[in-house]
Amino acid sequence: MKQPKIVLTIEARMTSSRLPGKVLMESCGKPLLQHMIERVKRCQGISDVVVATTINDTDDAIVELCNKINCKYFRGSEDDVLLRVLDAAKSVSADIIVETTGDCPLIDWRHIDYLVEFYLKNEYDFVANNIERSFPDGFDIRIFSTEALEQVNNLSQEMTDHEHVSIYFPNHPEKFSSYNWKADCFENRPEYEVTLDERGDYMLIDSIFKGLYVQNVDFSCRDVIAYLDQNPHLLEYVKDIKRTIV
Question: Are 9 and 85 in contact (CB under 8 A)?
Fold first, then answer.
């Protein structure tokens, strides 16, 4: 039986309203998007990585980085992110999509490999670790088939569904079966937010990289949690940030 091609997509653009150019902001001498790509490329369970960016001239810089570090990319619609991810997956003949976003530069490849294996061994249409949050915000992973995302593209023209790519799956249990992976006791820290939305987030993430990357380039989610437990003053960077709840 032919093994499915599993591809990780990273949604990334330069025109974030809250923090323009955030994915190419640097820490430890590298753009955060490069750090993220290097982290996910350690996965054993994926065949390829493709950055899903836009056709905007402003995103030429993302394409330049991808070319420099030999990472595949696809350019599509800025507003229809679902279609952009779908077409990015098709561009590399993906059977299964591991959906991630460029605002998660600390993402842990160990989580990805675990969830890919779980997806392959079970019969859920959609598996994720953030349908109900338990892991810290910034380690988000969603997995589904390219065929299923094509169905969603045809089923819904709602702006929210096309902006948030895979939100349709858990919101429509009558059509798709979903599974939420809950963190173990140590990693069950939803109060920690290490996602890249605003300047304070960058300051926090930069501090984490400077504290951990110099010791071990392959630090884990558990290392991040332990570091924040030991350095709670760093959370001052993000204490006043209001998150958008989808």
Answer: yes
